[in-house]
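F.,

This is the one I mentioned.
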């Protein structure tokens, strides 16, 4: 066997292995976060000391959302986990953080997480339980079902079971995240209205 023949065979083998490697390469996953739609207004950091404190309990999510993958409904009782589009942090933490940020921009109160904040300092307490938070592929819309309540001491002063929907304006993950973000902002506006009413009555 000549040197040229050996070299040719080695080149062909390397090319074949390279093609196999390219064919089997898995595309990297992309990561996403929910973001506050309402930026903090200027001067909010200098909030009045007389403002009440609202404690936000960690948002509770169902088991099917306790994973990094985006969940997509594909039919009655059928769901798919998107391997290549994932949440950059746990949904319960992400939703809680965005909720605190948006409420802080809409309510004249100190909105804080109960992690590290003494409950005794709070006049109001907000508890939120997510029942559904996913995109329905057949309907091209985001679905967000949630229960929430506001307590003042031992008394529940506001309680809701709500369903929010938002159209998905596109076929990509960015459009799905935007629709889910829209649903979350709708919820936060409703909670802000309830908190503003409660604060007004408590004065």
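My design for it:
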């Amino acid at each position: 066997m000549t040197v040229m023949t050996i070299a040719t065979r080695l080149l062909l083998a390397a090319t074949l292995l390279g093609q196999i490697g390219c064919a089997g390469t898995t595309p990297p996953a992309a990561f996403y976060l929910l973001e506050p739609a309402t930026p903090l207004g200027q001067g909010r950091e200098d909030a009045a000391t007389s403002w009440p404190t609202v404690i936000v309990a960690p948002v509770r999510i169902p088991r099917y959302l306790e994973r990094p993958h985006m969940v997509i409904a594909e039919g009655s009782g059928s769901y798919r986990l998107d391997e290549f589009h994932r949440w950059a942090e746990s949904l319960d933490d992400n939703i809680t953080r965005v909720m605190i940020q948006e409420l802080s921009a809409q309510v004249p109160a100190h909105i804080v997480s109960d992690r590290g904040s003494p409950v005794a300092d709070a006049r109001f307490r907000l508890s939120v339980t997510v029942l559904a938070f996913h995109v329905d592929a057949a309907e091209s819309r985001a679905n967000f079902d949630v229960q929430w309540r506001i307590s003042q001491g031992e008394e529940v002063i506001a309680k809701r079971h709500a369903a929010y929907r938002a159209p998905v304006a596109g076929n990509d993950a960015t459009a799905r995240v935007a629709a889910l973000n829209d649903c979350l902002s709708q919820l936060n506006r409703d909670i802000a209205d309830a908190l503003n009413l409660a604060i007004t009555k408590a004065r």
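The chain has one domain: 28-36+57-202.

Talk soon.
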